[in-house]
Amino acid sequence: MPANILIVEDEPAIQELIAANLTRAGHAVMRASDAETAQRLVRDALPDLILLDWMLPGASGVEFARRLRAEERTRGIPVIMLTARSEEQDKVMGLDIGADDYVTKPFSPRELVARIKAVLRRRAPQATEDVVEVGGLRLDPATHRVTAGGESVSLGPTEFRLLHFLMTHAERVHSRAQLLDQVWGDHVFVEERTVDVHIRRLRSALEASRHDRLIQTVRGSGYRLSTEVPAVAAD
Ligand code: CA
Q: Quick check: is 108 in a domain?
């Protein structure tokens, strides 16, 4: 499953080089040359990860990272900082802005792709190809296969992404707006009841093996996938 990666880099040649390598590695890429543009892009759709250059015209990468961390909606986005020299890297690390990793320019594209993979695995498992297993459900992003209690389950693409996100963030409650951000990548132009429609489809696909009970409605809050099935729903 490709990750949506936002590159914030003002040097066109470096931006181009990174974009080409990430695209080749199977990721979807968004680009910005300054923090203001990046902010606008993030407002429209949450990326799975941000590659953030420190020295930018206008607000610096450090300022932008701080802004991301200060906001509830963007706090969880993994950030990899790009710095020009290792002294800069030391300085930025010393500022403790909560970045997930730091990469010094010049870097080898292969190393950057590997670092991205490691950060995604740790912070955004729904954006990796790792197999996930929860409560008798098994989802394989690489082959797009889902089984419930060993039986194959057929899901539409949106239900698949929704289940993938819920399984990689099991036991946590997600509001409809959060699910739109994380699964649809759009919380502005998609209506919240769209989530309900796809939750319904997902449950009905899991009904045969009774795994629909794992997809729980939390009144007033949203949805969660939990292996602790409440007694009322267990018949
Ligand atoms: Ca720069």
A: yes
The reported pLDDT for the residue numbered 234 is: 45
pLDDT digits (tens, 9 = 90+) for 31-72: 999 999 999 999 989 999 999 999 999 999 999 999 999 999
CA–centroid distance, residue 85 to ligand 1 (Å): 11
Which CATH number is 200's domain given?
1.10.10.10
How far apart are the C-alpha atoms of 22 and 20, rounded to whole Å?
A: 6
Amino acid present at 146: V
Gap from CA of 53 to ligand 1 centroid (Å): 6
Query: Ligand 1 centroid to 158 CA: how many Å?
Result: 37
Helix, strand, or coil (residue 86): helix
Q: What residue numbers bound the domain in which 149 lies?
A: 132-225
Instruction: Work out whether the CA dihedral 194, 197, 199, 202 comes out positive or negative.
Output: negative
Q: Report phi then psi at 134, rounded to 5.
A: -145, 125
CA of 10 to the centre of ligand 1 (A): 5
- Number of structural domains found in the chain: 2
The neighbourhood of ligand 1, an ion, using CB within 5 A, equals 10, 53, 55
Tell which of 61, 95, 126 closes a domain.
126
Instruction: From 68, 96, 126, give the residue that closes a domain.
Output: 126
Instruction: Give 127 Cα–ligand 1 centroid separation in angstroms.
Output: 27
CA–CA separation, 169 and 226 (whole Å) = 10
Same domain? For 137 and 179 the reply is yes
Question: 0.90 cut: is pTM over it?
Answer: no
Ligand 1 centroid vs 82 CA: distance in angstroms? 9
| Nearest C-alpha neighbor of 28 from the set 52, 53, 49 | 49
